[in-house]
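TA notes. Do not distribute before section.
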Amino acid sequence: MNLDQFPTLDQLCQLIGSVDDNQDSHILFVTKNGDVHLSPFWADTAYGADYANEDTLQFVLDTFMIAEGYTGQQAAQDPEWMDGLFSELKENWALKTIGLT
């Protein structure tokens, strides 16, 4: 999913639904070129497995703790949650937010 290439709510739902909410915490971040990533996150290391480096990171939208219902298939099927998350991504991208939001 890329925020500069006409992203869709369906793309975000696919991304959120592609991970297991009960297996890992996850971090949602966006690179400077607009790519949206959802990566496993480990609090003891303070970064995600695929976390972008400072040179490519535009912003971190959120960290979703394990088994809280923010990721996985059930979360992806929650229209209110997905609409809000999609809006937040687009708003932060439009503002070119830098760093943590």
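Switch to the second chain here.
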Amino acid sequence: MKTETKKDLKSKTPRGLWNAARFVYRGTLRLRYKTAMDLSPKNKTCYCPCCGLRFKAFRTGDHFEYPDFYDLSLFEGIRQDISCPYCYSLPRHRILASWCEKNSTLLKDRNILYFAPEKSMTMWMDRNGISYKTADLYDKETDLTLDIQKTGLPDASFDVVICNHVLEHVDDVMAALSEVRRILVKGGLFICSFPVNTDIDIVLEDSDVKTDEDRRRVYGQTDHVRLFGSGAEIFMEKAGFDVEFIDGDDYPQEIVPVTGPCRYDINRLFLCRAVEGDIL
């Protein structure tokens, strides 16, 4: 089912009925994939750590259906069959889930805040008994309605903050990073990712880029307000973090930790630790 058709159907269906139907459908779909995995495991060469299922192949996304939203030239020549058929994870989600599996002691019994949570990652966290709070400025289904630039939360109230593909949308990236640093305990972890153009040194921002057409042309899609470069970790360092990388090259090819589906989707995440103290 196409994304727009699904959204239209959801808007016309009572919420309770939609949720019940979705629960049944998702349960049936998981059973089908799990049965296929158990019956013929040898040809299931793709593995998704988010949902724990194996597949013969990952699926191709629907980005080319939205030429008015994306700069489609950024997807051309880039591998597109990288989305999990069940939980729709992308490489960055599977890289993060793989890192989390190796470092689960950093997440167990911690206060975790997840901005703009991806279903694939919350699925992993639920399966592994990791408790967390979700937050978003626009998604009313999250636990908290928060602006990452000014949350109103107490100082040092969380041990871990996760935030993927949000910082390219906010008005003031330093305000967002400083706010994350403020609400983290000393030694707390901030895990994030964002599109990166390796041809840019640090960041591309232009106050004259205001229209959807201009944002799509300059930043790659209509809801982006900046494009980060290969040295973008300087922003986190200025906000008070030591920065390391969670590198997709460190994980097995079965999770398909590749660049994509867009040229700006690099196969690494940023692992940032608040520099004072070391309680985690």
